[in-house]
Amino acid sequence: MKHLFIITISLLSISCNIKNKDQKKLDFVEFDFHFDTESNEMPYNFSSYWDTFPTIVDRTAWEFAKIGNIERMHEIWDTKESIEIGLTQEQRDSFGLYKAMDAIDYILNEAEEHQVVIINEAHQMPQHRIFTTRLLEGLKRRGFKHLGMEGYFNTSQADSIMQANGYPILDSGYYTQEPQFGNLIRTAFDMGFNIFGYESSENANGKEREINQARNIESYLNRYPNEKILIHCGFDHVYEGDMPNNSMGWGKAMAGRLTEFTGIDPLTISQTIYSEKGNRDYENSYYQITDLEKPSVFVNESGELFGQQRKKTSIDLPPMGTFRYDIAVFHPRSKKYDRPQWMVYGDRKEVELSFVEENIQCPCLVLAYKKGEKVGKAVPYDIQETNDKKVTLVLDKSDFEIVILNQKNIALKAEFN
Asked: In terms of pLDDT, which residue wins out, 244 or 412?
């Protein structure tokens, strides 16, 4: 049975910030939908499900991020991390001597002289995955050929499946089920990067895990001597040198171990310190006094990066930001939470969908699949949840298949060109 599916496309004009609206009519059909995964767990659940697990902070925040609910993700994660202590006037004056520069340009310039670049993410922040994605083109031009990811399963089977399909699937990993992580993999593969996982396969934690991760990367480097690689890791694995006061029992994080084992000094980039929180009172004190339009680094008149002086001198436990890395990225805050502006770049545009006349009960998940990728098996290009049959997706110029799924497993599908 076919239905009339009306969508309104809202093309975001970066230059004048005006939306130009158009309308298309699509044939919409009922669809026998299921997630094609070897796991017994649902890859995407409704908000009402995760609201029943308020004490599982990490997992719940990750799951809200997977369905694009950035506002709820922040509300949950705010309860986990504390802020840095307030700044003195001297610290404010000192920070005022630094000026914001485009982070992508700065990083690409620095990457010219490095064989290994390591950039971290907060696992609940799709914004960080998008930033790494935006670095890929420039890194490719500078000779980078390989992308290693903590969240990507470290198995030959995962590699062969990726090569066979040509796109990320739900069984490629856990974090990689989040659409922006999937798009990072998808973009890298399309650009010709060799993709590999390096996670410890022995389910180790602490010091042993850091060593195993570094050894796995070392082994990969030995297969491709003198070739350039990008490592996308989580949180503190990016830190170089000895961890302050033997933090967490690691001795050294993965990045520090990699230097120890290979002699390579990587370019290390932290995204996790200077990013937004849902409540600004929970943000890092230096980040609180910024107001940025794009990802930035802060540089003084001597060419010194903000953070470098802390890298050289700080040996204490948190306040956060005292560990050792080369570059600190300051990210812009979201202008709105329905679809944050940092999602719109290149040929990616906002697409407003309305299916108010369809006979389907909400809440619904709206999933966008790239045409040619297997619906239900591939990692969706984008996901949003809706209670009012209206939703905004962020899509590129590709053809898509749009799936609407409700809690009773009733699904509708339409092609979007």
From this structure: 412
Amino acid at 25: K
Characterize the bridge pairing of strands 2-12 and 349-354: antiparallel
pTM of structure: 0.91
Phi and psi based region of residue 241 (left: phi greater than 0; alpha: psi -120 to 50; beta: remaining): left
CB 316 within 8 A of CB 339: no
The residue among 227, 102, 141, 125 whose CA lies nearest residue 184 is 125
Given a contact cutoff of 8 angstroms between Cβ atoms, the answer to whether 197 and 155 are in contact is yes
Identify the pLDDT of residue 156.
Answer: 72
Q: Rounded distance, CA 417 to CA 26, Å?
A: 9
Q: How far apart are CA 358 and CA 360, in angstroms?
A: 6
Distances (CA, A) of 255 to 42, 145, 223, 232, 315: 33, 19, 19, 11, 17
Structure tokens at 103: 């982070």
- How are strands ordered across the β-sheet holding 116-121? 99-102, 296-299, 327-330, 267-274, 116-121, 228-234, 144-149, 194-197
The two structure tokens encoding residue 109: 């310039």
pLDDT tens-place string over residues 57-112: 899 999 999 999 999 999 999 877 656 667 889 989 999 999 999 999 999 999 99
Question: Which letter does DSSP use for residue 27 in this model?
Answer: E
Question: Please, which residues bridge with residue 349 across strands?
Answer: 395
Residue 151 CB contacts under 8 Å (≥ 6 apart), including other chains: 123, 173, 174, 175, 176, 181, 197, 199, 232, 234
Check: CB of residue 302 under 8 Å from CB of residue 97: no
DSSP class per residue in 295-328 = -EEEE-TTSPBTTHHHHHH--SPPSTT-S--SEE
d(CA 168, CA 187): 10
Mean pLDDT of 132-159: 90
Q: How far apart are CA 166 and CA 97, in angstroms?
A: 47
- 379: which residues sit within 8 A by CB, 6+ positions away? 167, 168, 169, 170, 172, 176, 177, 178, 179, 181, 182, 185, 186
**Burial class of residue 245 in the structure, from the number of CB atoms within 10 Å of its CB (0-12 exposed, 13-18 middle, 19+ buried):** exposed
Residue 91's contacts (CB-CB under 8 Å, 6 or more residues apart) are 286
Residue 274 contacts residue 305 (beta carbons within 8 Å): no
* 63: DSSP letter: H
189 in Cβ contact with 181 (< 8 Å): no
Token pair 């990083």 in the structure block, residue = 107
